[in-house]
Design brief:
The complex is a heterodimer. By secondary structure, chain A is mainly alpha-helical. Chain A is elongated. By secondary structure, chain B is mainly alpha-helical. In chain B, the strands form two sheets. Chain B has a three-stranded antiparallel beta sheet with strand order 4-1-5. The mean pLDDT of chain B is about 85. The chains are: A mainly alpha, B mainly alpha. At the A-B interface, helix 2, helix 4, helix 5 and helix 7 of A face helix 1, helix 5 and helix 7 of B.
Chain lengths: ~200, ~230
């Protein structure tokens, strides 16, 4: 079975990590920063005044926050009311709409050391636990066609788990039908329509 | 592990056949297989039995547990027990598939046996899934399940460890400020390289400190390198 490679944990080089941190966060600068006036489109100053609000990408936030240059608002899906929605019923929530990388971004947000961090973390863990049963069941029982409906509600991490489960299910089914022993032409080659040599020579 | 690999491991089991040819003892890597005389039953590995059957050189004898009565009893036990009951054979699913695929006429009641084995399998898989689910919900760290066969374990195989890995990742406690941990680590590396006087190491430490934005350590490395260059 092919190994599933996740680029794990806030890994500097993981492409997923880079992509998911692109989300915009609204920040307020606590100190005046000279010559960065262009970041704030509403004011025309050359310098960035103290207290001006700017939208920055998320990957800039940890460093600036650690140096106490900004205060920021966490992305809204991790706030209290959304956490309460998750607590009420995590299974029906459409996590893909809430951010295709809900869990990973949540991990980054929680690691910033805010007052909410332990709550955010425990809410992430509980949500995943609740939804795992459904993912497992769905992945072991679905056919090709229904898959699209089922995975539309899952975020990327859950989709990977779903894909893994489905792979193991499909290879079992193939084995039962005794097709894992057969050598088949690869789909790509068959659709090439270039297999004319064999037909011509015979 | 894919099912084909499990099948490969299961094929090593021995089964009794009745050959219709004559041959001396065979000395194979896995052991020796006794002399073949027509009509006299002999024990051979399953893979060899299937192969001989496909070449029409033998007749298979079903294993003792592959009868309707035994399997019905096992099915009832499995249905009544909340945990897994021991199976007559460690690879019952594979053996059934192989034997019933290769030699359906040598075994009596093949259809019923197939249905019974499939029912037993479905029951056990359902039990396995609910126990995995219960395990995840409790958040347990250790589970002990007896009497599971390899093929059944293989159905949950990549999913369960990966799910647990992701849960572990989400639960990990991380230091609040990146700076704190990075600083202590890079500073320790710096102190370590101070003593061994390798300039190249110091350059590497400085590069790493730049990547981690530890300006204090960058300045220290800088001072050190300049001092070393002046000496040279």
């Amino acid at each position: 079975m092919p190994q599933l490679h996740f680029s794990y944990s806030p890994n500097y080089f993981s492409i997923e990590d880079i992509v998911l941190q692109d989300i915009r966060v609204s920040c307020k600068f606590e100190v005046a920063v000279p010559k960065l006036g262009m970041l704030d489109q509403s004011a025309d100053n050359e310098d960035l005044k103290q207290g001006s609000k700017v939208e920055l990408p998320f990957w800039m936030v940890p460093t600036l926050h650690a140096k106490k240059i900004i205060t920021f608002e966490i992305p809204r899906h991790y706030k209290v009311n959304y956490r309460q929605i998750l607590q009420a019923d995590s299974i029906v929530v459409d996590l893909h709409k809430w951010g295709p990388y809900f869990y990973d971004l949540g991990l980054h947000v929680a690691n910033l050391g805010l007052t909410d961090s332990p709550d955010i973390k425990s809410s992430l863990v509980k949500t995943l636990l609740n939804r795992l049963r459904q993912i497992m069941d769905m992945s072991q029982h679905s056919t090709h066609h229904e898959t699209v409906h089922i995975i539309s509600n899952l975020d990327e991490l859950e989709r990977k788990l779903f894909g893994v489960g489905q792979l193991s299910f499909r290879s079992y089914k193939e084995w039962v039908r005794r097709e894992s022993n057969k050598i088949n032409t690869a789909a790509l080659v068959a659709s090439h329509r270039k297999r004319k040599f064999a037909e011509v020579t015979i | 592990m894919n099912p084909a690999e499990v099948e490969f491991l299961a094929e090593n089991q021995t089964i009794q056949i009745t050959p219709n040819f004559s041959h001396d003892r065979l000395y194979l890597i896995c052991g020796e297989v006794g002399p073949f005389r027509p009509g006299i039953p002999v024990q051979v590995p399953l893979w060899m039995a299937i192969n001989l059957k496909q070449r029409q050189k033998c007749r298979l004898t079903a294993p003792e547990w592959m009868t309707v009565e035994t399997l019905t009893k096992i099915k009832e036990d499995e249905g009544q027990s909340k945990t897994f009951t021991p199976m007559p054979d460690d690879h019952y699913m594979v053996t059934t598939q192989l034997i019933l695929g290769a030699a359906p006429h040598d075994i009596p009641n093949t259809d019923e046996i197939r249905i019974l084995v499939k029912d037993i399998w479905d029951m056990r898989i359902a039990k396995l899934r609910s126990s995995v689910d219960a395990f995840l919900k409790i958040g347990g760290s250790l589970a002990k399940v007896d009497h599971l066969t390899l093929m059944e374990i293989n159905t949950v195989r990549p999913f369960l460890p990966h799910a647990l890995d992701q849960l572990f990742r989400l639960r990990q406690e991380k230091n609040f400020s990146y700076n704190q941990t990075h600083f202590s680590w890079i500073y320790r590396c710096y102190v370590g390289t101070c003593s061994n006087r390798e300039k190249l190491d110091m350059v590497h430490i400085q590069q790493e400190a730049i990547r981690l934005e530890q300006t204090a350590v960058v300045a220290l490395c800088d001072k050190r390198l300049r001092a070393q260059m002046k000496i040279i």
